[in-house]
Design a protein that fits this description.
heterotrimer, A mainly alpha, B alpha/beta, C mainly alpha, A: mainly alpha, 2 domains, C: mainly alpha, two-stranded antiparallel ribbon
């Protein structure tokens, strides 16, 4: 009897040790992951807070002198507040339009009996696989003829078109998971398809809607090449274009560039911090059903 | 029905944005594409003066990145679509031939007469000419220069080298005697980009070669020299990634004896807040090869007019203003840009702000443009590939690489001649 | 009922379809047509059938860029999967600071690619770079020019891409992780299986669908990589970090060879489509197999 108890208590002890070691190792790994994830951004942040004299120092200094001159330059001389506003407008508008159109399109694909919907989805997904470089020419010509260059719709419309396939796919996958009873109940209550969609479906599909919205927003905020070619009027340019303009005629003003980079990123970083739970749950819960 | 609704929606969106810009009496709006200026104040003042002198015109700048290739992407996208919203633009020194052959830039012969052209450096006029016509008015000019550590050379009783071999031997001597591990012999721009072509043009042309004939002996010898005596001998390891920024940073932190760069670097190097070698820098023309003459790559920008512009006369008025003596002086003083007009170099105000311009005059008179062909971007890409590969590997098979490159160049040039 | 449903469905889909046709399908068709022509500003445009594609086959530089593209895709996707699994496991842990850890891990994904490229370029800088500082401290004579040598430049681009996208892969995999029932783990633990055995025996097999989806998405995206190369290296040194999509850009924009550039883009698309089709056959059909069709 006692022998057996000794044995199990020793096993428990060993297991406890394993758990402690495991926890230590895991904690270390997690700390490492956080460091690697945040490291580059922190480094750029540090750089942006250095004084102009510190920027050219070899070797580079670890600690900044907490000098805001680069931020003053970026917001003053280089008008980054304007770029931030433009990015916000374009990204928000794209998100609203893409999610709305996407939801409208996903509903029939998921629910209604539509002929050839698999082909349609395939076509849509296929189109989204085309390299952006090839699309730029046609998009530019269309926007030019419509007089939409250097306007907000000039970016919002192509961005929407480029993100719709993904948005539709996410929403359609989620819609399909919604139990039929909900719709049947709605139909019994006398709701037409339109009311069913808006009053019943969308609220239930909130996680997928949020997911699609976040993905579209991040894409629209970060997109670069189309913005470079379509928005040449500084009053309309977005943050990525603003950042890319910085390399001066002969030299890269790393301090200014670092401050610009921080400004271009901070809104999204804040978004992630605030919405991280929603992002995680949205992308994991409804979207991917293998 | 649905599609009607959708198109209506799109049309509404569209209509909301086009909106006619002017009613009778409102000023004509000129859209001019330029790069992002390092000092916007100089430009703002220039525009203010233009608006005061021409109340019926308002100039709106379309700003692009400072990188020449990225600005080129942006401008050519508008030009190839005959986007009438673009009236005038800046052209890098290698673009006029391309823009002219493509019919994008307007020939300016009638507004820019030969007598007026004489006021500009010959190299700059050559750069904006194509098949007997001029397609731009030079705005500023640039040329490769040699910067050197006057203190180090003086310590060793040396004067600025007249030939490249002299430069390398001076560098080796100084390096050996200084014994400073942070010091290197030469800094320049040898990254795989346009600047590489400029740097190597200076070697090749100084040796009597032509970049369009890389397989000819003078060209091969020049490249071999650059590879063996500079890159893998006295230059820092990273020189093959340097553009203007990095090469200047090395020199201004005391890391190099010689620097090949553009005139803009002078003000930075002489500013104690930005340079650790302020007061110990000299400038000279680039060295030649024994028995030859030095060659400096021509840089700089000019203004052109879009052939599809609806306001040609106003656009010409604008670019004439910006390249006129008053503005050239203004930019020379405010922005340190070397003007394309020769006379400005004698202006006391300009010389006061840029004393080194006096030394630069002779260099600018002899600066050489890069190959003038409409397909220069293709040629440049081919040359960049060849040159960077040739320089990177100390044992690169130069003859073979050069032969292949020349064949490729000739093939590309042939596509222009065959129109069918 | 069906008729009304069909009409209603068409109505709902039309806004999305109009946009997609105008801004996606039409430009693609235009691009494909252009790829069959010699189209540049200097000679009259003419139709040459598959001439551009034939030229592409014998184009050495194109082949080189294809080689690096495949290398890039293979290396970055593999690393992203490994890192993604690790990150997913970390995000799965119940910690006190779970929210902050997750947020920190997600941040690289939220940063604009342009900014990522600038950051990494700065970190690789051979005079003020963070990597040099970490590796060599104050001994600046040892500083390396990471972006000057082909091998390290390629490594830098791959790592930058992995750094940026691993969080997204982790999110995709986290879904799969959360679907693994705890009871299975408990049972295995009671049976004496260590964490390693449990991972490889239980977790990994159940993660397979999620891994395949992540693999599919990431491969298709990695084949199209552009912004990173455009801002970080422009294909340098030599053409070491030139990828096919960037080569297509070079032909179209700087060199004004629209027909040839379009052909390159079509080839990129075909690569993506082939891979996509192969994967969809294996994974995607299950997505549509439910509703009685």
């Amino acid at each position: 009897m006692s022998g057996r108890q000794d044995l199990s208590s020793r096993q428990d002890h060993r297991r406890a040790e394993q758990v402690d070691l495991g926890r230590w190792a895991t904690g270390l790994l997690i700390a490492l992951a956080v460091l690697v994830s945040l490291g580059p951004f922190l480094w750029i942040l540090v750089t942006s807070l250095k004084s102009p004299a510190q920027i050219g120092a070899r070797p580079p200094a670890w600690l900044p002198e907490l000098d805001l001159s680069f931020y003053r330059a970026v917001f003053g001389q280089h008008d980054f507040g304007r770029y931030a506003l433009n990015s916000a407008i374009v990204a928000t508008a794209t998100t609203l339009v893409a999610v709305l159109f996407g939801a409208l399109a996903a509903y029939p694909l998921a629910r209604l009996r539509m002929p050839g919907r698999r082909w349609l989805l395939g076509l849509v997904l296929g189109a989204s696989m085309f390299p952006q470089i090839a699309i730029v020419g046609g998009v530019y010509r269309l926007l030019m003829r419509a007089g939409l260059l250097n306007t907000y719709p000039g970016l919002v419309l192509p961005y929407t078109a480029l993100t719709l396939p993904l948005a539709i796919w996410i929403l359609a996958s989620f819609f399909r998971e919604i139990p039929r009873d909900l719709e049947d109940a709605a139909r019994v209550d006398g709701c037409g398809p339109a009311t069913t969609l808006f009053k019943v479906f969308l609220p239930v599909a909130a996680p997928a809607v949020a997911t699609a919205a976040i993905l579209v927003f991040v894409y629209a905020w970060n997109e670069f090449f189309f913005a470079l070619l379509i928005m040449t009027d500084p009053a309309r340019q977005t943050l990525p274009v603003g950042v890319a303009q910085f390399p001066g005629e002969h030299e890269v003003p790393w301090g200014d560039l670092a401050a610009a980079a921080v400004v271009a990123t901070l809104p999204l970083v804040a978004l992630v911090l605030i919405l991280q739970r929603r992002i995680v749950s949205g992308l994991t819960a409804g979207a991917i059903k293998g | 029905m649905v599609f009607a609704l959708a198109s209506l929606g799109l049309a509404l969106l569209t209509a909301g944005c086009v909106g006619d810009q002017r009613d009778a009496g409102a000023p004509i709006v000129l859209r001019v594409a330029v790069w992002k200026a390092n000092n916007p104040e100089a430009w703002n003042e220039a525009l203010a003066r233009f608006h005061a002198a021409h109340p019926g015109i308002r100039v709106q700048l379309d700003i692009g990145p400072n990188s020449s290739t990225q600005l080129h992407d942006l401008i050519t996208q508008k030009l190839r679509n005959r986007d009438a919203s673009l009236d005038a633009f800046l052209m890098d020194v290698v673009w006029p031939a391309e823009f002219a052959a493509a019919g994008w830039a307007l020939a300016l012969d009638e507004w820019f007469a030969p007598e007026q052209r004489a006021a500009f450096f010959p190299g700059t006029i050559e750069a904006v000419s194509y098949q007997g016509h001029v397609y731009g008015i030079p705005f500023n000019t640039d040329s490769g220069l040699l910067y050197y550590r006057s203190d180090l050379l003086a310590d060793h009783g040396l004067s600025p080298p007249a030939t490249w071999p002299e430069l390398t031997s001076q560098a080796r001597r100084i390096l050996a005697q200084q014994g400073d591990p942070r010091l290197t012999g030469y800094s320049g721009q040898l990254r795989k980009y346009e600047g590489l072509v400029c740097n190597l043009l200076e070697f090749v042309a100084a040796n009597g070669g032509d970049l369009l004939e890389p397989a000819a002996p003078p060209a091969i010898a020049a490249v071999a020299f650059a590879r063996d005596s500079i890159v893998h001998a006295i230059a820092p390891r990273g020189i093959l990634t340097y553009d203007e920024q990095e090469s200047l940073d090395l020199f201004r932190s005391g890391g190099a004896i010689f620097l090949r760069s553009w005139p803009y670097a002078w003000t930075i190097l002489q500013d104690p807040a930005q340079s650790q070698v302020a007061g110990r820098v000299g400038i000279a023309a680039l060295p030649a090869f024994p028995g030859g003459r030095p060659a400096a790559a021509l840089g700089g920008w000019s203004f052109g007019v879009h052939s599809a512009s609806r306001h040609v006369r106003e656009a010409v008025a604008f670019i004439t203003f910006m390249t006129g003596p008053e503005m050239q002086t203004h930019f020379a003083i405010q922005a340190g840009k070397a003007p394309a007009r020769r006379g400005i170099f004698r202006d006391p105000g300009v010389l006061a702000a840029n004393p080194h311009f006096a030394d630069l005059l002779a260099v600018f008179e002899t600066a050489r443009p890069r190959p003038r062909t409409p397909i220069y971007p293709r040629i440049s890409h081919i040359l960049q590939r060849y040159l960077h590969e040739a320089l990177s590997d100390p044992d690169s098979p130069l003859e073979r690489l050069a032969r292949d490159t020349q064949a490729e160049i000739e093939r590309e040039l042939a596509t222009l001649r065959s129109a069918g | 009922m069906d008729h009304r449903q069909r009409r209603f469905g068409c109505l709902l889909m039309s806004p999305a379809l109009v946009l997609i046709v105008l801004f996606l399908v039409l430009p693609i068709v235009l691009s494909v047509i252009t790829s069959l022509q010699i189209d540049n500003p200097f000679v009259p445009r003419r139709f040459i059938g598959l001439g551009n594609y034939a030229r592409l086959l014998s184009d050495e530089v194109a082949r080189g860029t294809l080689g690096f593209t495949l290398l890039f895709v293979g290396a970055s996707v593999a690393l992203e999967l490994v890192a993604g699994i690790a990150l997913a496991l970390m995000m799965h842990q119940s910690l006190r600071a779970r929210g902050l850890v997750r947020a920190a891990i997600l941040i690289p994904w939220a940063i604009p690619t342009v900014v990522t490229a600038v950051m990494w370029k700065y970190m690789c800088n051979d005079q003020y770079g963070l990597f040099n500082l970490l590796l060599y401290g104050g001994r600046i004579e040892f500083y390396q020019a990471w972006l000057a040598q082909p091998t390290t430049a390629r490594l830098a681009i791959i790592l930058a891409d992995v750094w940026k996208t691993a969080p997204f892969v982790a999110l995709l995999l986290l879904a799969g992780l959360q679907a693994v029932p705890d009871e299975l783990h408990e049972a295995a633990r009671i049976d004496g299986a260590g964490p390693g055995r449990r991972f490889f025996g239980i977790t990994l097999p159940l993660l397979r669908p999620a891994i395949l989806i992540a693999l599919l998405f990431r491969t298709m995206d990695a084949l199209r990589v552009f912004d990173l190369v455009y801002v970080m290296t422009q294909g340098a040194p030599g053409d070491a970090t030139n990828v096919l999509q960037f080569y297509g850009y070079q032909k179209t924009f700087p060199e004004q060879q629209y027909g040839y550039g379009a052909a390159v883009s079509v080839v990129v698309f075909l690569l993506i489509a082939i891979l996509g089709l192969m994967a969809v056959r294996g994974v995607g059909t299950r997505l549509f197999a439910r509703e009685g069709e």
